[in-house]
Design goal:
Arc Repressor Mutant, subunit A; disordered C terminus; six-stranded antiparallel sheet; disordered N terminus; 11 helices; 2 domains; alpha+beta; 14% strand; globular
Length: 270
């Protein structure tokens, strides 16, 4: 966790505040983006505390009240300051797709939030300026048409899938993937840094924690020790250490009820 977060009380998790939903992206965007999501913050407050975003191994193109930026890839929790009533529309890149579409190695964006205008020239970035989420989606779709051949890196997409499915705690992610993808470890590490912003070990850690969070919400009455084993941790203390590093709190302090953490609403709201 960053030093700034350690100096203050732990911010609430982003998923605990406001309304969040995920829906499929329009067909024209499915080759590049895995899903779209909307997060609407409460408007009945004078101010909003920083919200803690837990790293999840993804990279997002985001529209926030008219501004467009790239978020991630994150290696640590990120404190996000947004105004009351803010609307955030995110387009989540397929694993291995962001570097080609954005035209930059993801290592340059690790743990950052960068305005699209700082990555592209002014004319290109202006093509995505939009007054509403729906207009933003239309403009991303129009911009993506010439880049339809920029499919995700197949090997990196498969590496993500393999790590998402889990591996034994004692295995080395780099060696484990090298054997399954039939790629030299040095080559694999280099491609990981380009497409994910960090190496296989970091991605394995983030996806393992996300696997635990999904299990915890799906099985709210299951003991944490059992969930830790199912998620791929060596033991419950291992899970506790990772939870404090990635979410700023012990696993016992995380919400376990899926209904209370994800309030869905229709695609029309996007």
């Amino acid at each position: 966790m960053s030093a700034d977060l350690n100096k203050t009380a732990t911010p609430p998790l982003a998923q605990e505040v406001g309304r969040y939903s995920e829906v499929p992206v329009p067909p024209s965007l499915r080759g590049i983006f895995a899903c779209q999501w909307m997060h609407v913050l409460p408007s009945d407050a004078c101010s909003m505390p920083p919200l803690l975003v837990v790293p999840d191994g993804s990279i997002d193109l985001q529209w926030i009240d008219g501004a467009v930026r790239v978020a991630g890839p994150d290696r640590q929790p990120h404190a996000e300051a947004l105004r009351p009533g803010a609307r955030v529309l995110g387009l989540r890149f397929h694993p291995g797709a962001a570097a080609a579409w954005l035209g930059i190695d993801m290592s340059a964006l690790a743990d950052r939030r960068v305005a699209l205008g700082d990555l592209w020239d002014a004319r290109a970035a202006a093509c995505l300026a939009a007054d509403s989420p729906s207009q933003f989606l239309h403009r991303v779709a129009a911009l993506s048409q010439p880049a339809a051949n920029l499919a995700p890196d197949g090997a990196m997409a498969e590496a993500f899938r393999l790590l998402q499915s889990g591996m034994a705690p004692e295995d080395s992610p780099l060696r484990w993937l090298s054997e399954r993808l039939q790629q030299p470890e040095r080559t694999l590490r280099r491609r990981f840094v380009k497409h994910f912003g960090y190496g296989p070990q970091t991605l394995a850690r983030l996806l393992r924690y996300q696997r635990f969070l999904q299990l915890a919400r799906a099985e709210p009455s299951t003991p944490l020790a059992q969930l830790a084993a199912e998620a791929g941790y060596a033991d419950q203390p291992h899970l506790a250490r990772e939870s404090r590093r990635l979410a700023g709190r012990p696993p016992s302090a995380l919400p376990r009820d899926q209904a209370s953490t994800t309030l869905t609403f229709g695609q029309r709201d996007a």
